[in-house]
Design a protein that fits this description.
The complex is a heterodimer.
Chain A lengths: L17 H33 L3 H27 L3 H30 L14 H4 L4 H4 L2
Chain B lengths: L1 H19 L4 H20 L13 H27 L8 E5 L6 H13 L3 E6 L4 E5 L11 H10 L6
Antiparallel strand pairs in B: 1-3, 2-3
The chains are: A mainly alpha, B mainly alpha.
């Protein structure tokens, strides 16, 4: 202890309210996870709107059912604490991990088999000046 | 056969208990009855085999899913960046990824992992390999899939060539 310290050390060390710290930590962590999951879902929706063709849109949609859904589920698990709800959420996360790529593959395979040609090669979003004066539906293509 | 039936029944009973969480004799009795019915159906359909009840791969598969989740997180950021860029520079590419896995379940695991990773979707599978649609040209390097393929094969206890 430095000699010039005018404040004497408290006789009892400050009691840290560990319960409250844990509660706040969990609340913050789950809020962060749910918000970042929502951001991924939003980015996926934007991607579906912005991408040029069917197959590239599928990539954007795939984002929402991987990280978007998994982050939200993780956040909800922290909210639920250790209970039956957590086990159920774990099951949902596990089945989503198995079924969402299966569904994506089924859609992609169906599109390919029915003759839809993927648009390949470099693509850039059109400049605003290029689509000005067109109706939104024209501008999207 | 008997071993597969017992393990399937135990797993389904655990699943039932997780979903219901009532431990009264009547409700658990209903659960046991429906589990036995389902196992009986599986027996009649002759699908009680290592593919339906892949219990021997449980630990390696869980470990693989952990690794895969980290890969998915990494790939997600690349796709989010591509989507949110104002000029949205993408370069969709098709490529064929060879499948070193010998068993069907190993190939399924590999193709499913490719689809689960954002930016790559497996579109078709035949003897040459998996036809993959990649969102960005830099994701379309067959060498990048080698590690995932080996891990996917290993996760179902298969030694990849």
């Amino acid at each position: 202890m430095a000699a010039d310290n005018t404040h004497s050390a408290p006789a009892n060390p400050v009691d840290i309210p560990w319960d409250a710290v844990l509660e706040w930590g969990l609340a913050l962590a789950s809020t962060g996870l749910i918000v970042s999951g929502a951001i991924f879902v939003l980015a996926g929706a934007l991607g579906v709107l912005r991408m040029p063709d069917f197959f590239t849109r599928m990539h954007a949609a795939g984002m929402t059912d991987t990280l978007g859904a998994e982050f939200i589920l993780l956040g909800l698990m922290l909210q639920a604490g250790f209970s039956q709800m957590t086990l159920k959420l774990l099951l949902v996360a596990f089945f989503l991990f198995l079924t969402s790529p299966t569904a994506t593959h089924a859609i992609a395979n169906a599109a390919l088999k029915s003759g839809l040609k993927p648009q390949l090669g470099p693509y850039k979003a059109p400049e605003l000046s290029e689509i000005e004066g067109k109706t939104p539906s024209e501008g999207a293509h | 056969m008997v071993r597969y039936a017992i393990i399937l029944a135990l797993v389904m009973l655990l699943y039932w208990l997780t979903l219901s969480f009532y431990f009264e004799p009547l409700i658990v009795g209903f659960g046991i009855a429906s589990v036995l019915f389902a196992v009986g159906l599986c027996y009649r359909m002759r699908i009680l085999d290592s593919e339906t009840v892949p219990y021997m791969h449980t630990m390696t598969t869980i470990g693989y899913f952990g690794w895969l989740f980290l890969e998915v997180v990494k790939a997600n950021f690349a796709v989010v960046k591509a989507v949110l860029r104002p000029d949205m520079e993408i370069s969709p590419t098709l490529l064929t990824v060879p499948t070193p896995q010998k068993t069907d379940i190993g190939k399924t695991m590999f193709a499913n992992s490719i689809t689960l990773t954002p930016g790559t979707v497996s579109m078709d599978i035949d003897d040459d390999g998996i036809l993959v649609h990649a969102l960005l040209a830099e994701m379309a390097d067959p060498d990048d899939f080698v590690e995932m393929g080996q891990r996917a094969g290993f996760s179902v206890s298969e030694v990849s060539s």
